[in-house]
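Student: I would love a firmer grasp of how sequence relates to backbone shape in proteins. Thank you; the sequence and its tokens follow:
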Amino acid sequence: MEVGERTIPLAKSVARNTLLARVRSYLAPIPLMGWLFGALVAVVLEQTVGLPLALVEQTVGLPLALALGLTGIPGLFGLRIMLTRPALIPSAAAYVLLVYALPTLVVARLSAPLANRLARKLLDRFPLMVSLMVHLALFYATVHLWGGISAYRILFLRFIFISIILTLSLNLVNGYMGEFSCSHPGFMALGAYGASVLTVLLFVNDDVFGAPLLPPALGPFLFPLALIGGGLLAALGALVVAIPSFRTRGDYLAIISLAFMFIVKSVIENLEIIGGPRGFMNQPKWADLPTVFAWTAVCVWTIYNFTRSTIGKAMCAVRDDETAAAAMTINTRRTKMATFLFAAFWAGVAGGLFAHVIGYINPGTFGVYKLSEVLAMVYLGGLNSVVGSIAGALGIQVLIEVLRPLELWKWIAIPVLLIVLMIRRPTGLFAFTEVNIKDLLQPRQTLRRSSVQVPGEER
């Protein structure tokens, strides 16, 4: 009897391992390009390509959603239905399975040979940047088509990309440099107001600033310069924090940076020329999805290379042991200053994008709530990880949207979930985890039986 009781769990374990091995073997030949092909086909199936929002009722996904008992196409993969209408959870799951999961998996597996050949040719015949741009183009096409089905999805995607920029920039300071900064909402506010003043002053007929100084038609083309101006203003504000705080050690940076955030918020509230506590409006909504995506891609690429540069390695050395780094001839103060100003610049760019997404900003937006949100994204994804920052920003933004129907209770549920996650994974989801871009874009080889050694079997 004891032998039988032991045999049953063993048989289940063997069966489970065999199933997992078959799944891995089935998915092993699929490169990243194959998964992008599959995802692109899935979002094309959900809607008619190029269909304007006014004709959204004629999309392919809507008849399927109605047939499954849904009231319309799920805005966020049906995740919000879990709280609003739990009875429709099976229908939402079936919709996601039929529209997204199965088409992506089938197309990715069938296109694996072609995707592998194409990935190999791109890496062999062209620089790495060409292969990266092809993958980014496929990814953006998928995101653009998925978001094009509703204005809600477009807005959600833009907020996610802005959150990725914020999280990456703060991770440079709190993760790679080993300090603890609370000034990012202040940098974001400086970038938002700086870029807004430039665009309204130069291209908008405003009640306060008067007629535009330049033709409005030039605005979209010069908009990147306004974002850079907002980022430089944020970097200049970072000097106010960095000069006194980096002369000391310990928790002084956290105290000074927190005070800086409140100072910036208070100064903006008392400047009537930019709206004071009422906020600043009339910003042209030039931060569309392609613009935000392009700035996010540039931010990820520059920060990824920054962390691997000479100054990035010096930054990690300062984090591990500042005294030892100084003994190895590293100028620790210059390294921390450069990192802090670089992070503040990207926070300012994120603020400028945020202002031109919604067309209105208020000093109350850049307070303690924004600080807690950005810190949660950084520590959820994990310190010292570009991948972790992206995952943390995506996870928190999705969590906020999924729990939005809970209203006030949402701000109780989210901290509880974060506490549970931090207990289970104290370092975050992907702390100290990085992915080599070239390895990520490499083709995948089919797993051959001859390359696997089976116990007890001679080769």
About this structure: Confidence is low (pLDDT under 50) at residues 49-57, 446-459. The chain has two domains: 24-105, 151-440.
